[in-house]
Amino acid sequence: MRHRMFAGVHAGAHRYLCHARGYPGHGHGRHSGDSMEHEMLARRRKFGAQELQLLFLALLAEKPCHGYELIKDIEQRSRGYYVPSPGVVYPALTFLEETGLVEVEADGNRKLYRVSTLGVAHLESAREEVKLTLARLSFVGKKMETMRRAMQGEGGEPDPDGWLPEYIAAHRGLKRALVLKADADEAEQRRIAAILQRAIAEIEGTGNE
Question: Can you say how many angstroms the Cα of residue 115 is from the centroid of all Cα atoms in its chain?
């Protein structure tokens, strides 16, 4: 019963929605493509209630921690793109505790959260969703860092934890190619879809050797 409860969003789920945060360089170079995309990312809702619950559960599976440590971990992984407020984190943790997915123990005057056996089982059943959620957090963090470096004129300096210039160029090239094919007929759409499916399989390592 508790396991099924996790799939629903309780009455206070709206409190879990993310809050926007300021971004380095925001407001400069507003007419560049990267800046426009930067602003779109800033306006976009970051994680919904169930995504946040799953994200917190996945991070707690890595190690037990306090709510404040969860906030700092997410801030670091997203490179400042998303810093959940206590008003977002603690109601979500309370919900996870109430549904039996996390356990809580007193640690001085604070609470230490850890994943329960039921929580581990839930993570296992949602393995692909967990992987995608964590990857999304990393992706938006690198995206924001790439934009920050570009706006601050650091594009020539290597970022050891960031994307290579050729990777960025390929990513942009693909988006440009798809935009130019927006009016493709059915036959052309099928051709493009087949190319993309082969590329996806190769990128994800599922293609035949």
Answer: 20
Neighbours of 73 (CB within 10 A): 18
Same domain, 30 and 106: yes
Phi, psi of 79 (to 5 degrees): 55, 40
What pLDDT, in 10s, does the model give residues 68-91?
Answer: 999 999 998 888 888 889 999 999
Query: Cα–chain-centroid distance for residue 166?
Result: 23
**Per-residue pLDDT at 143 exceeds 70:** yes
User: Do 155 and 169 reside in the same domain of the chain?
Assistant: no
Q: How many domains does the chain have?
A: 2
- What are the structure tokens assigned to 179, written together? 């935009």
The neighbouring-strand residues paired with 114 are 103
Positions of E strands within 56-204: 102-107, 110-115
Residue-range definition of the domain harbouring residue 177: 164-209
Question: Going by C-beta distance under 8 Å and a sequence separation of 6 or more, which residues neighbour residue 188?
Answer: 181
DSSP structure class, residue 185: -
